[in-house]
Amino acid sequence: MNGIGLFGGTFNPIHTGHRKVAEEVKAEFNLEKIYFIPSAIPPHKGMDDLADAKDRFQMIMDAMPPGKGFMVSDVEIHRQGPSYAIDTVRYFKNNLPVSTPCFLIVGMDAFLEIDTWKSFQKLLDLIPLIVMTRPAQNTKQSATPSVELEKYIHVHVDSGYEFIPQESCFVHPAKQSVHLSHVTPVDISSTIIRNFIRQGVSIKSMVPETVEKYIHKKGLYL
Ligand code: ATP
Question: pTM score, two decimals?
Fold first, then answer.
C-alpha cells in the first residue's frame, strides 16, 4: 500500500512553498495522501500574529487542488493544549491500518530543532521522517544538507544513525529512518508574507490566488 504523509505546521498562511514541496514529496515517495495539519497552539512559535486556526485551515482547503490526495486535518485544532507532533502521530497511527506506511514531513529548519520537541526520541521510534531541504536563510545551514543533518543527528539525536548516500537516508538499527529530500528551493516563508502584507507589498505569486483573496477579504495580518 502507498504511504501517507503527515505535514504539520502553523501555515500562517499556507504559501506556494508549502504547496510545491508537498507535491514533490508526494511524487518522490509515492504517497497516496498527504495530510496538512495546522497547529492550534504551536509549541515553538509565538501566538502574536497567528491567524485564527479556522482561517488557516480554510486557506489550506482553498490552496490545495481537490482530488489530488491532499487533505487537511483538524485534529490539532480540536485538541486541547499545545499541538505536539507526538500526539498527532499517535492519533494517526491509532486510526490508520497498521500496514499503512506513515511519514512525518518537516522542513530542514524545523528538523534542526527537533531536540526541543516533546518526546522527540519516542517520535523517532514511532515514525520515519522526511526532511525537506530549504533555502539557507531559513536554516542555520553552512555545509551541504546531508553533512549538516548528519552533524545535527549525531550530536542531538543519536550517534547510531548512518547516512546511506544512494538512498539519501539516515538509518539506525533500532530507530526509524530519516529521509533527506532535495526539493526544489522555494525562497518563501509565512513570515515574509505577513511582513509584506503589513508593508502593503503585493504577495501575488507567493500564495495561491484563492489565499490572497481570503487574506484581503478577512483583513488578516494587517
Ligand atoms: P514562519 O515563517 O511563520 O515560521 P514557515 O514559512 O516556516 O512559517 P510553517 O507553517 O512553519 O511555515 O511550515 C510548516 C513546515 O513546512 C515546516 O516544517 C517548514 O520547515 C516547512 N516549510 C515551509 N516553507 C518551506 C519551503 N519554502 N521549503 C521547504 N520547507 C518549507
Answer: 0.96
